Fold each of these.
Amino acid sequence: RKAKLFPPVPPLSFLHSFWSDGEQTPESRTFPSAAFCRPAMEINDGEEEEEFEFSRNYFLAKELGGSSKKSGRKISDIDPVDEQELRTAANNLEPKHEREVASLMESYKASYPEWGFMLRTGFGLLMYGFGSKKALIEDFASTSLTEYSVVVINGYVQSINLKQVMVAIAEVWWDQLKAKRRNSPSQAQQPFNSRSIDDLLAFMDGQEADDDKSFVCIIVNNIDGPGLREPESQHLLARIASCTHIRIIASIDHVNAPLLWDKKMVHTQFNWYWYHVPTFAPYVVEGVFFPLILAHSSTAQSAKTAAIVLQSLTPNAQSVFRVLAEYQLSHPDVEGMPIESLYAASRERFLVSSQVTLNSHLTEFKDHELVRTRRNADGQDCVYIPLANDGLQKLLPEINP
Amino acid sequence: GSIETREVHSAVAFVSARREWLDGKQNERVEVEAQKTESGLVPTHLALGSCHRGGATSGFTVSEFTPAGKLLVPSGSSSKGLHLHCCCYMEPFTILHKASSRKTDKISTGTGKSRTTRRIDLTASLPASTDISDVNAAESNERHYSNMRMEAFEAVWSSTESSIKDVLREANATIFSEIHEWVRDSFDTIVSFGVPNFHEATQPFPVVKDATSKQIFTGLVLTRNIEFVDDLVTFEDLKQHLKSQGCHVANLSSVDFSSKNGVGTCLRSLLGQFVTGSLDTADISMLATWYKEQQNNDNPVVIIIDDMERCCASILSEFIHMLSEWVLKVPAILIMGVATTVDAPRNVLPSNALHRLHARKFTFQSLPEKMNYVVETAFVKQSSEFTISHKTAVFMRNYFVHQNGSVTSFIRALKIACAQHFSTQPLCFILHWFLRDEDNEVPQSHIYGLSQERMLKLAFDLPSWKSTNNQITQLSGETLLDGLTQLKKLHKTWRMVVLCLYEAIKGENVQLLDLMCEALDPKGPFASQFDIGSRVLPSDDSTSQKFHSLEKNKGLINRAIRRVKELPANQLLVLMKAWEKHTVDVPEFHSEVKALVLSLLKLEENGESLNQNKVEMTNTRKQALRGHLNGADKNLRVANEKASNLVDLMVRRYMCPVECVALHEVLCFDCVDQLQAALIGDMRRRIQMDLQDFHAIIRCSCCSKRGSTILPSMPDSSIMYTLAQEHGDVVNVHDWYQSFKSVVLSTHMVSKRGKSRSKQHSPTPKKRKTTSELSQPSEASIQARFCKAIVELQVTGLVRMPNRRRPDYLQRLAFGS
């Protein structure tokens, strides 16, 4: 299909459901970058239609979600296989279209000189398109950027200490400078570890190099990844990218990734040059930290594992758990069982002799995430089992009567 | 198991660790699924290290690890094929390689955590026969030529960029000096409140006098831009200007005033710009100490806040309070950028902070004015010959007007266009040749890795040359030189005409960019007489006929011509004087313009004498005077007519759009699509289109598009994405899974029924598999594929995991493309 002049406007509701986890939202004052602005230009008929189709799709989907009778089927109805088995299967999947993917990757080699040229003219390369681009970008760097040092940052890793990264970059840049000038540099070097971020930035931005054209290239795999999603990280990355002796190549995968940046970052700091390079290579490392939907949330699985934990506890503890479970089944709408009531009920059945004993049981439950506490409307502390009712029902026969 | 014989330089370990829910902290297990190396040895410490690292961050730790060397490689492991996983892929960062002149010299060190050398080789087979030394020589040549092209680009671009920067700075020069004057006055006022004596100055607390001395002089600068990106450039210029005048200047941005970090951040940022050395604590008394230590204390401290409205109000007001307490010790003057109106501070700041401000308003150039300067410098007055085609100009105009609205981005777009021109056009070095003004020599192509014959061939193969000059058989360097000189000349005269037209229409709030787009149009009404490449100017009779019929048409050029006709005498004179400057290179017009100027001057003299006479007017002389006035009127009308004819002639004769000239490809950029793709990433749409039309990208034989049927050979994510289209904004996991399963299982139906059909295709491995593997895929593998596909859709942000409220539904985040 013909490429459109401009992307359509995302309906506002996308902003609410920004990231998959829904907790981290971009800084409220950053403006969506260019990629999401309103196109008002020469829209010819075909494009207008596409535009219309886009919004229609959105409203159709919303309508469908609201009106049509929702299927009440549960995940557990799928009857997921054992988690172990699932993981083994997931790691042994037969990749599809291996040959085509390989030739697609190969075809991008023709663009390497152009990428290198754009990088050297001062742009940051931003790779997007479906498929993991890690191998592609790193291959590009290993074949075309041999005269520059290359540092790889993996944004898909959960937490990244950018200060450490900067120290590493500064060290690499320092080595590069030293290698360029055979005579020893004039000033004594302060260990980079103890320098402040501003100092490091100034060092990378500095005019110390005789040769203005050399630089260190940073590859950021998944710059929109969980490890770099914080606005602070993005601001810092932008500042690094804007240094004179730094060039950046990054890949993005999330459709809302451009919302991470404001215009200052896009146009003056990162200075993005977009490349659409779908690879269709599987997201293997990028997906490592995502849970498998059929592995974690299945009630059968949780009930089973909960049962195993319970079986290793004392009979009294199991019975206390049973009291709680039965209460929860008979009161499906309340926040949980008040601790006082649980104590009273357990004491009645001679399961505990004192509050202390109960508390020790509860602590054990909590440690294994068998119960959680929350407060009800009256302000009482309540305990509840974080399992759905059907899971509980499966669990009950398994524990000591 | 079997290991594929691809070149793998590094250990490939696929490590997945899993925490069993019930085991808690005691008994975690780690499985190593697959591991393979070139030599069969496994660097255990790497695998371990990465596990530990990954573990620490994702909520599990590794307590027990089987010695990696003993691990088996299951056949068909996921590390097959191209998607190799580096053993250190769970590192937050690694050093891929260090700079080296020799290619083989690849050192790689992770900063103390993991050390590995690796190279991913995507080429399954290099042409084996090529001699390595040949390859190396060719490579180094290629590098050299690309460096030369790079240099050419830098020369061309920097000439454009620096002139743009200069013109923008000049445009602000008056307002800058006005601001500086005000800064000086304010500083004098502050000093007049009293300079702290030595004793006071050394105390770590502020000096307090009366209330008026607590006021901070504040310049509210109306930036009049649409985007704050442009403000940043202006404020940077202002900073440099004030610095050159001796002031101490610091820039603070709205990021420094975020409520998250409190006032400490902006103080630290402020101190960081003045005080050298590391700062452990940020305290304003340090600023006072620093100021006291300055050699001469007769310079003010100017603090520029680029976008006051984006700052957190409470932090800003706290900052203002603090500054005002200390103002006698640190004579601070604030300059705040305001994007909307002067009322902004009143809306943002609380009244007690407002009381501390002594504000004055400054106004910068408006955006359209700035834009005109930029366009004028970049395209009409530029020193380099690089230009853009009509289509590109229209695109850039629309990009500016409708989408971006910032001068900075416009310049950036121009830079991208220029860079693309240099990376795609083999003859681009001619631009550099133009720049160096070596008109009498044939461009030296060999230093750019192009033999002269090749250059000539390329040049004479350009469509614009072929379409016009096919009768010329003698293709030599001289022919090219002639062609290029002609190109340069025509381009120059085109710019002259555009400039003259712009002068004529300047007062009417017209954007030069619009005018330029019109003048560049090779299919426009004025370009029709310039058949591509023809240098024979059409005879006057035929074109003027055509011209007059076109004159009723609307358009800026017509408007300019009409306006010249109606200009009053004094404005016409100003215009003609401007034209006189612009037309120096075209003697034909220059003389005529000169004559017009003279006649207008004469007219003006007469007019002045008439005005003097007016005073002593008597009834008897009125009659005669009226006659005289009529005569002056007539003369003016004649002058108008003449000027209008002149511009008319200019347009007709010399405003040849660059795309109508032979060889224009060397200096004119015309790949709008490419520019657009680089400038505006269309993330949301393209990802979905990739999934929908993957066949167009992958070009496999197995899933050729047959209507909208979902084929099981499609990538799982594509199947899932297509299936999700049938659902609303939430998708029931169970239903989704069932439909996915039925699609996957349909493979076996198809292959059973259509064995003959599948034989017709070239037998790809995939096909063979589907036909041979008649056994159903296991439930586990279907579920695993389903899970993996959902993970991939999550990575791309197309779906969101179920939340507690709706545990059985996935939320769709993007709808159609």
Amino acid sequence: MQKMLTIISNVLRGSASRNGAELVSEGARVVVSARTYADFTPQATFDIKKCDLHKLEEGPPLQAVLTREEGLQYYRTMQTMRRMELKADQLYKQKIIRGFCHLYDGQEACAVGIEAGINLSDHLITAYRAHGYTLTRGGTVREIMAELTGRRGGIAKGKGGSMHMYTKHFYGGNGIVGAQVPLGAGVALACKYLGKNELCVCLYGDGAANQGQIFETYNMASLWKLPCIFICENNKYGMGTSVERAAASTDYYKRGDFIPGLRLDGMDVLCVREATKFAAEHCRSGKGPILMELQTYRYHGHSMSDPGVSYRTREEIQEVRSKSDPISMLKDRMLSNNMASVEELKEIDVEVRKEIEDAAQFATTDPEPPLDDLCNHIFYNDHPMEVRGINPWSKLKSVS
Amino acid sequence: MAYLRSILRSGKNGVPAVLRREFHRTLPAAMQVTVRDAIKEAMDEELERDERVFLLGEEVALFEGAYKVTRGLWKKYGDKRIIDTPIAEIGFTGIAVGAAMAGLRPVVEYMSFNFSMQSVDHIINSAAKTYYMSGGLQPVSIVFRGPNGAAPGVAAQHAQCFAAWYGHVPGLKVVSPWSAEDAKGLLKSAIRDDNPVVFLENEIMYSVPFEMSEESQSKDFLIPIGKAKIERKGNHVTLVSHSHVVSRCMDAAAVLAKDGIECEVINLRTIRPMDMEAIETSVMKTKHLITVEGGWPQFGVGGEILARIMEGPGFGYLNAPAVRVTGVDIPMPYAKLLEENTLPQIKDIVFSVKKMLNV
């Protein structure tokens, strides 16, 4: 009987991934589902590390509840992000991606945890290490990769590249270090102005944390009680400069001074999620901005032109990979609590790999944007105009 | 309306004195309005028309504007729509651009455009380029306004003209009004425009009154961005100018008219996109071109106009090489005598016209 059910469930899982569940007979499906649910723990509670607090009486809870569905979803998204970035690395080395390419692998728990703590109707802005956020904010792997390769199917029609990707309620992708912070506070101002109970998550790195405009923004966000969650992704290095060499104070969560702050483990997706929920509650209750520092790590160098080993040791990178990898951490939690099976997770890996391959295929075969798109999208909602070309006889057309 | 006008025309005896005075006040088809008030009227009307429009800048609310341009607006619209900022240009410009990205329509005031240099990264990298970089996904509807260029006695750090700097950037519209009508119609267009507009006012012009036509008093009076205006028709030479220097050109034209030289004075109104067609049409008629501006000569507005004339149909019509009259290529000095000799005066324009025409 057991063997029979195993066969049925394998067949069903196989067919389910091909064409949904139509092939399943009602009785068998019920039996298999019952077996699936009986097999796995539907949810579990995990202890998470306490956050360091600044100007806060209490912080996020010390325990997080993770359901099986949530776990599988976080796993899939983080794995997709990881594979996507590694594929980008490959394409860059093949010179199919050009220019700047700042990869996010190692930091997946931040993007996924943050999104789990807010709604899609909230807003988010970050700097140039943005591929992960483009994904969590609704972009598809295809559109992201095709933008990296500069094709017409790219999320910005091939006109932006790695650092300039946008989706609904996601404002990029910003190339100028620190500029995204006042922009994010401005989005928060619009949230408050329009009264829709939305907030803005505004991300920056440990390098950007020393920018003057960030302090101007802290002041105004606090003065005007803007619903803004400032998040510093501290991956310990601003390009090639370690935090100790760049900052007189590396307590980035305290830098907001009059703004309450939290410092937490950015490699633990549950920690990030709980802290984000806590911060979102703070903002939505009208208390004004709040600051979160996520301690995280990037495996790659600053960008593809940086091997990443002249200012840190390979041992350090290896140590983080083996002891604190965010995907491994989640996987271990789920497996050891019987929330998923090794096969199930392997299958997700296979599906993810396929999705990335398809996307890469698209990204390398989709044609580049047509030349007559060159001068379009200068102005929005405007009549067509002429743009001067390279020589005086070259008059190019521009439409909105 | 016509009936009332006819009463007045019939003379003082036609109507009792008291009644007459009342009609006079409510009647005039045209009225005198200063540039400052025209700018304020434009903002007032647009604030009323669209809930998403709001103002921010230093001293715009309680202080009623460093140059009193926003007087009365905070009392009328309150804290939510008229926002006093701390002295943090790059911060509040970024905040304004972010608010525009999220769907609001901010009007950012710089106490003078000299301070916008702190914010230039946001004006160009966050505002001007974004619609293009996003492949048409993210528009930015925002106006950056404030006094630009020379003002009496303010010295080097407070007197720079930014028309050429901002005019250089694709993705920006750059407007430089002269008269009260210009200011009102163009600012309303700028606020209604869904793109980043740099609106260059001038402190010298704020208190200058102009006659505003009846048409311009309507709440939907708009002047299209990108169209120049011929302020004075003439056949002998084309003077192209913008902002406060247009006044100088008009004065110089009056002086030259006494010598039988008729200047055609073109008020550019918009620096980018520039109305080359108006300039070319005029040059084809007058066959002589002088650009007049307060900004520095090198890489200036005049330089651009001359290059385009060279490259376009107008060149074949010129009877003399086109020239530029500009501010002197130095930081603005303080002493009155030195300052006066740094900007184009009436005599400089007259001299240049006569030299070009060989008279």
